[in-house]
Amino acid sequence: MARYAVVRSIRSAAILSLCFMVLGCTPGGSDTGGVVSEGSRSEADTATTDLGPVLDASEKSMVVVGYSTSYVWPAMLQDMLDEHAGGDRVYHVLNAVIGGSPIGRWIAAPESEDYQETYGAMLRDFFGPDARLRGDLPAPTVAIIQQSLQRTPTPETRLGPVHDIDDPEGIRIGADALEKLAGQLHDDGIERAYFGMHIYKEGYEPEISNERFALAALMERGHGFVFAGPDVWSPTAREHPEAFTEDRLHPNERGMRIMAEEWYRALAGAGARQEVIDAMHACEYDVEAMMRAYFEWRREDGGS
User: Fold this and answer.
1) 59-298 — its CATH code?
2) pLDDT, tens digit, for every residue of 242-270?
3) Distance from CA of residue 270 to its chain's centroid?
4) Which residues contact 243 (CB under 8 A, 6 or more apart)?
5) Tens-place pLDDT, residues 205-216
6) Which residues are CB-neighbours of 19 under 8 A, at least 6 positions away?
């Protein structure tokens, strides 16, 4: 895959993409076990909402809202979006994920530590005229939300509120939480919010799988700026434990590639191109170095 950005000046918002170029993203020679062949994709995986003109060739910034499953795959998604745009940086992926932070922390009271370490940090880094890390890029108008309802509505609700499909109260609680996050983002300038729920999580099922019922309930509320993103639970469930780290909970490189592919397919819709996906899977990534670079980039103390 061509690395067009190496000839550009380094801007803060491009640093994640640049880090994997420097750290050894080269075509060929890698285990591309994360490729999900068309033959293995279920109808549920390939069915996508009509997301409208997201990848419409107009420059825009997309902020990623999530936590510890999403440190690295947004950089892989950036690669695919660059390739999709013919090698130009048209779509800017700004990664705002914070580890250990399911949705409850992001929608906590603004004066709380939870909020300030998650949603508040995102605002400081990427929104407003004095955004710390956005540089001269456009303010985010698209949110890529890869989230979970664990510890919702309270930290004591460890697995999440939705016990099964016949749990209207749990589904309402989950939908309310998703709706609150969507509303906050909309108030801060997000025009299109795409929700994807958690990957498969051993020991936390079926509550994790049941998060989709809360998302479906949110979609039924008819907010014009809210869209269902990809189903990443199904492909990661099929690839467990091979797509997970030794703890069997977090995605390894294979799992990260699956997540990046599914988000690209969802955002590109019918315009998704297989050669773009194949190029990402053929690219070598040093995911540990990429993760370290991400942590260093997001540090607010400016230390080394």
Assistant:
1) 3.40.50.1110
2) 999 999 999 999 999 999 999 999 999 99
3) 20
4) 34, 236, 251, 252, 254, 255, 258
5) 999 999 999 999
6) 75, 289, 290, 293, 294
